[in-house]
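Q: Structure for this?
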Amino acid sequence: MSAAGWQGQRRPQTALALRDPPWVRALLIVLAVSVLLSFLVLPLAVVLMEALRPGLDAYAAALADDNTHHALLITLVAALLTVPLNLIFGIAAAWLVTRFRFPGKSLLITLIDLPFSVSPVVVGLSLVLLYGAHGWFGAWLVANGVKVVFALPGIVLATIFVTVPFVARELIPLMQAQGREEEEAALVLGANGWQVLRHVTLPNIRIGLLYGVILCNARAMGEFGAVSVVSGHIRGQTVTLPLHVEMLYQEYQTAAAFAVASMLALLALATLLAQHALEALRRPHPPEETSP
Amino acid sequence: MLIRLLSLGLAAGLAAVAGNASAERSILNVSYDPTREFYRAFNEHFIAQWQQQTGEKITVNQSHGGAGKQARAVIDGLEADVVTLAMAYDIDQIATRTGLIPTDWQTRLPNQSAPYYSTIVFLVRTGNPKGIKDWGDLVREGVAVVTANPKTGGGARFNYLAAWEYGLRTGGSEEAARDFITRLYRNVPVLDTGARGSTNTFLQRGIGDVLIAWENEAHLALAELGPGKVDLVVPPRSVKALPPVAVVEGNAERHGTLDIARAYLEALYSPAAQRIAARYYYRPIAPEHAEPADLARFPDLELFTVEEALGGWVEAQKKHFADGGVFDQIHQR
């Protein structure tokens, strides 16, 4: 039976692990769990507790506020614009980097990583310097009545900049490991480029892609620094959820601030759940995985 | 399917965002940190009054932040219809750099375009354990002072200049003032960028023995936290701050909101607005309209303006806060 075979294979490893004295194992477990609790669970629990301290009515009131709704809308719109763009860019970039050799390839990889190393504040300021009233394109934008900074386009631009690496960074190692044999086989069998992409490349990178999208989306909804610089902080107009949290906190509306913060946390949780749901949906008929 | 759903949602979202912006006439008031509560109350009053007088329903949007940062944002293209900032210097900056505000803006409204005024006071821990009564007490050994960075915060510049004036007056010379201010900033453990930031440092994070703060900010903190956590100390002499207001004519004209913007600022001088100002801890310039109980919260003290005592803002800015100025010199040590 295959199960027995599997167990048989694993037994030596388990035995090896069992050789550690019990106190070492207990210590490691306690350490891992306490780190997890104190650094991950506790802060999130505090947010929820603070949010709920004045009672459910106050919590509901904070979430029912028009400005909160608008902040949520701005955040969702920014994420909805950012994620598909990064998805397309990420696939294209990863494909280019892993399937072709060309001069300047390492430069391109470095460029993709740039947003990881540049401080978000610098990103925001550079947008102001480019699109602000006295920036490079400022005169033209003002003359044509186009608002970029201190309006939604600026927020979206800032969000796109800081999230550029997420999808590509997930895909590059994955596609490198997979190699190009399957795609070449498809080409030999007469598939055109679009067919290769749809039936070979995309199914292979599905999980990595999904993970990249989740990360990209989380960062897009949570981005603070770059968006703060280009937002203008106009309530009900250019305020995203993270900015709204800060403004409420500064106005001594601590409970409301935590209520909105918990909403942000719930959004993140919802994305994770969506990821699992999507994976589960696909599970009934997955393409047979080759042994790793 | 998924893509179609997403793009539908996106279209609806964009429509909502765009529709929200164009449904009715609105003005944007770009202000500094401690005015949030006052303008929330005043906007409500003004919107109701405007509707009563003209039948038109309008919106007043607010943007708050450190005064210097807000002026910078307007210069960079934040489309304010009116600015209500901490000091004339910031509005002058907008006027000279963008031309959106006429340079004689300060003469357009009464009292040098300042509808209310305020001063700088101290917040101390309950019972005033360090016995802080005047500016001189701030430089004593072991007193931790919380104030913001005067290069970025409007209120922090007033804090700095009030202390400088004390050093100048009591020491009798420029060197004495410089020595005083050096010792004072040696006692500052954290320099936040704005007034609200340093208030939070003092109250929420519990850092420092004394917070140098706007009078209205101090009162607001007292009211928000409830009595018994911190005490208010009013020094015998402090600086008079006249936070001015101006219509950003260039922007308002383009938006077609010049009439609302002008009426908005004029309404700040009305009896009702003066009463609201006093309620939110700004000293009204027409105190006869305020509630006596509100006025009782403003103790008498000697007030001097930066113009009278220190030769005006342009000079003070150049001498103290410009790059390489006195603050940079003393802070580097």
